[in-house]
């Protein structure tokens, strides 16, 4: 580390030099005729303690790791947008609902924030460390606020989820990422549509007035058994399912909507979700503590250095 931190030592009596002037000692300044002595003070050695070294490099390495992670997330998001030609003139209007935009935003925030922390810790830059700790504190408060609002406004959140699910279903064939997300939700939660399987009428291809073979059908991920003979994926297993009554349809497809499935999944995994939330908040609080401790140490030793130089 640099010069700003000192190691305080206790001078034992037997190590103290005799301060009595002696003519035989060449290190004692000679008194001139006018009674003035010419002395030259040595600049004190200023060093970091072992704890300060540990905090500095823990903060630097952890932020460097998350900076690399942020760059990877940002790269994946940009690759997804470019590969789907989301910036094309005919698609730019719907880019706001593209799932890849979430990865891009997360990558930008994570990279910029962690880069501040890593450079600030490595260079012992108080300004960068203050900005880093302030942003982490704001994000920490925002997460707590979101958690409180999520608990108190569950009905509104359910409405937002329903709107998002219906939007994804409407663009099922047009966006591969949305299609992947919907398929994963329906397969893992064994559900179909937002409220029930008839919600798929919102899609122009599965609408009963559509001219194609998919009319009045549902995707294969809604099927109870989409595999023929246990090996071959039958992509047409949901054709005509919307025309069936519920008693007949339940032998072919899942009748329940995915919003109910998501609610049940959250209730069943409340402990896991709470544990993850506590760990994430704990890591951020620990980061704030380390940054504050390092800032205090740097500022104290800078002040010490300025007073003695």
UniProtKB/TrEMBL annotation:
Keyword Amino-acid biosynthesis attached: no
Disulfide cross-links: 192-208
Sequence intervals crossing the membrane: 57-79, 100-121, 127-152, 247-266, 272-295
Subcellular location: Cell membrane; Membrane
Pfam family, one: Tetraspanin
GO cellular component, one term: plasma membrane
Keywords annotated in UniProt: Cell membrane, Disulfide bond, Glycoprotein, Membrane, Transmembrane, Transmembrane helix
InterPro entries per UniProt: Tetraspanin/Peripherin, Tetraspanin_animals, Tetraspanin_EC2_sf
Membrane topology: Multi-pass membrane protein
Domain of life, source organism: Eukaryota
Quaternary context: Interacts with ADAM10.
Function comment: Part of TspanC8 subgroup, composed of 6 members that interact with the transmembrane metalloprotease ADAM10. This interaction is required for ADAM10 exit from the endoplasmic reticulum and for enzymatic maturation and trafficking to the cell surface as well as substrate specificity. Different TspanC8/ADAM10 complexes have distinct substrates.
Identification of the protein by name: Tetraspanin
Organism: Takifugu rubripes (Japanese pufferfish)
């Amino acid at each position: 580390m640099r010069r700003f931190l000192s190691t305080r030592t206790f001078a034992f009596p037997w190590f103290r030099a005799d301060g009595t002037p002696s003519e035989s000692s060449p290190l004692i300044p000679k008194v001139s005729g006018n009674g003035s002595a010419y002395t030259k003070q040595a600049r004190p050695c200023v060093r970091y303690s072992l704890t300060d070294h540990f905090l500095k490099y823990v903060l630097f390495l952890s932020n460097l790791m998350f900076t690399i992670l942020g760059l990877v997330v940002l790269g994946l998001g940009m690759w997804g947008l470019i590969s789907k030609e989301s910036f094309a003139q005919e698609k730019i209007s719907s880019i706001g609902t593209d799932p890849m935009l979430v990865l891009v935003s997360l990558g930008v925030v994570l990279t910029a924030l962690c880069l501040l922390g890593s450079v600030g810790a490595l260079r012992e830059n108080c300004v960068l460390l203050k900005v880093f700790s302030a942003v982490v504190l704001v994000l920490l408060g925002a997460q707590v606020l979101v958690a409180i609002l999520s608990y108190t406004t569950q009905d509104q959140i359910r409405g937002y989820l329903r709107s998002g699910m219906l939007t994804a279903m409407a663009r099922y064939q047009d966006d591969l990422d949305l299609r992947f997300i919907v398929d994963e939700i329906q397969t893992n939660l064994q559900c179909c549509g937002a409220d029930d399987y008839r919600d798929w009428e919102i899609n122009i291809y599965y609408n009963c007035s559509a001219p194609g073979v998919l009319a009045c059908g549902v995707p294969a991920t809604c099927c109870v058994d989409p595999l023929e003979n246990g090996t071959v994926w039958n992509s047409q297993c949901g054709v005509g399912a919307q025309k069936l009554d519920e008693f007949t349809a339940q032998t072919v497809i899942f009748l329940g909507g995915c919003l109910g499935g998501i609610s049940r999944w959250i209730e069943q995994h409340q402990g896991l979700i709470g544990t993850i939330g506590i760990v994430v908040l704990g890591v951020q609080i620990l980061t704030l503590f380390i940054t504050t401790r390092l800032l205090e140490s740097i500022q104290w030793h800078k002040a010490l250095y300025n007073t003695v130089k």
